[in-house]
From TrEMBL:
Enzyme nomenclature, EC number: 2.4.-.-
This protein's UniProt keywords: Glycosyltransferase, Transferase
Cross-referenced Pfam families: Glycos_transf_2
Name of protein: Glycosyltransferase
Claim: Cell division is one of the keywords in the record: no
Signal peptide range in chain numbering: none
InterPro entries: Glyco_trans_2-like, Nucleotide-diphossugar_trans
């Protein structure tokens, strides 16, 4: 049976959101024959969310035993993934019911692609939703198109937390990157520079806005310039080497 592995790094302070994330997974309408596993990776010294993960029969929980950071926690979860596809679900975000089906069907319809990035709405604290425009027209995204947009704008250009990708391609690029900020973007640019991807027209997930989110914390902008410099250097290096990944 084909499997999609959903990776969720989490720390104790996000326990209040984790159950809602799990419920959004329980409500997924997967394509016929597909199954999912939820790899909950707790980043911290204690097993503070093990009980919450245990409420869901499709969850596979593990704790790091120490605090390593979100991108390392994602990579530890990645090493446990059994699916041919991996999907990122942050602990404070939610998937809409057709999210995983939309991604799987994109891979079936476009065998060349290695990644799908989902469109999102902001989920505000009062439970209202706020839309924002996609950076590109929905459809196939050829190698280099998204990365050029990032270079031109100086901004991430896509919500990286909605990524679905071929597991082996993510592993080949070393998973999520240990940049001070934007380790998820550093992975996305490697995928987008070297492989085709797809942007569905549908909104498939909700990006929760709340006071405790990492990007809203004091000091988040520190080392942001250095992180973007590393990302630009990665794009330039891939282009200089002429790296392209063959058909899946």
């Amino acid at each position: 049976m084909p499997l999609i592995s959903v990776l969720t790094p989490v720390h104790a302070e996000r326990a209040e959101f984790l159950a809602a994330a799990g419920e959004s997974l329980a409500g997924q309408k997967l394509p016929e024959g597909w199954d999912l596993e939820w790899l909950v990776q707790e980043d911290g010294p204690d097993s503070a969310v093990a009980e919450i993960a245990g409420r869901f029969p499709f969850a596979r929980y593990q704790d790091n035993g120490e605090t390593l950071g979100v991108n390392i926690a994602r990579n530890v979860a990645l090493c446990r993934a059994g699916g041919s596809l991996v999907h990122v679900l942050d602990s404070d975000d939610l998937l809409l019911p057709d999210a995983l089906r939309t991604a799987v069907e994109a891979f079936d319809a476009h065998p060349r692609i290695h990644w799908v990035t989902g469109q999102a709405h902001d989920l505000l604290p009062d439970s209202t939703r706020l839309s924002f425009a996609a950076p590109l027209e929905p459809g196939l995204i050829e190698p280099g198109v998204l990365t050029q947009l990032i270079l031109d704008s100086g901004r991430p250009a896509v919500p990286c937390a909605g990524l679905t990708a071929r597991t082996e391609t993510v592993r080949a690029f070393g998973g999520w990157v240990a940049t001070p900020r934007g380790g998820d973007l550093a992975l996305v640019v490697a995928l987008a520079e070297t492989t085709p991807g797809f942007l569905p027209p549908e909104v498939t997930w909700l990006y929760r806005r709340h006071p405790g989110q990492i990007t809203g914390q004091a000091g988040w902008t520190r080392l942001q310039a250095e992180s973007m410099a590393l990302i630009r250097q990665r794009i330039a290096a891939l282009r200089g080497l002429g790296v392209r990944v063959g058909a899946a």
